[in-house]
Model the fold of this input.
Amino acid sequence: MTIMYPASFEYFSPLNMDEVLELLSKYYKDGAKILAGGQSLIIAMKLRIISPKYVIDINNIPSLSFINESDGYLKIGALTRYVDLEDSDLIKTKYPLLYEAVKNIADPIVRNWGTIGGNICYNFPGNNLPAVMLAYNARFIVRNLSGSRTISAKDFFLGPLQTSLKEDEILTEIQIPIPQPKNSGYFIKLAKRTGDFAIVSTAVNLSLNYDGTVKEAGIAIGGATNNPVKIVKAEEALVGSKINDELIREVGKIVSDVIEPVEEPFGPPVDYKKAMAGVLTIRAIKQSLKNIIG
Amino acid sequence: MQKVHVKININEKPYEAEIEPRLLLVHFIRDIAGLTGTHIGCDTTNCGACTVILNGKAVKSCTMFAVQANGKDVITIEGLAKDGKLHPIQEGFWVKHGLQCGYCTPGMIMAAYQLLKKNPNPSEEEIRIGISGNLCRCTGYQNIVEAIKYASEKMKGEI
Done:
């Protein structure tokens, strides 16, 4: 007798996108789930937190896995695995914010199989990538049987484990604007141990003008709150200004003031998370500047 | 109940069965193929005791359905020793006392196997990152790191 942890489900392994969309449209009302890397979904199914009746495995659709730059965007297929992002010279050299965030997801074995699309669609508060997507002003291409639409990151993340993806839709592509010259970014995560979910994480993306003033700034905080937060006030404080230590401290303070962390029964105090959001942002801005100026 | 016919090559030997899609890869390996060297530890993808190599990539076999490995190649701890001779990583764990209770060892060795395939000459820090998905509750990792260092040198022919 073999042990089986998850509840029974019907399994589909489509070989192209048309099949995926047809299956989704047929079964979404019965709570069909897309299985990508499964590094969150399968655990939730084993623990019987969820028991979908239908599972649509997209692992046999290689066209959902790619990394390229075109039409002003870095385009990443939703099924692209963390390890492929981590091993990509393009990501390492031109998208340091994404690189740092991916490198700090779980552990190398999980990163071999987990996918960027899964991380974003799951929108677990401790995940690294939702805040990164906000800081980059990324956008997502989603599809259903009747067509496709584009959702900006700021409209995508709705709350813990909630996104604006409809039940019959699937995320197919992540698009990050190709960085301006004199751009860099950084991601820092405060966690109990390496690879754990974030207590607080900060994602910073900066572009400077040639006179040294800030052209563009993206700042977002993850982990501390139920949903990743883009700190627009902090971004506005930076844009157009010449960065100095005083301004960076000021931005850190804005972040600490704006953020409203969740009280957790066994977690660190809210005030600590507020303070750390500011501190990590200060460090991430300094590191980004160092990367740009050298 | 849906049943799927799968054939998985484990350590270069095919195993076929009619299974339910909900069967985890680790249970296929242990219960159907009878290869109990692959352990089940935490069940939440934390501990890495169930690590195997699937088509060249280390995966946690408790976080994958067996049906997903259909037609693919799996290497488990039983597949490392050849002709009665330990693999250099196994030898390293023996020589450097890289285990105490031994529960995490098969997963540790499979993680090290992938690490050394990708990076034959890892620094101590790279070794520690390489096994960060595998938990040991006995030794404090020092001897495990030494064992992997030993294996890396042995595989380069230095020992």
Remarks:
- The domain at 4-79 of chain B is CATH 3.10.20.30 (Ubiquitin-like (UB roll)).
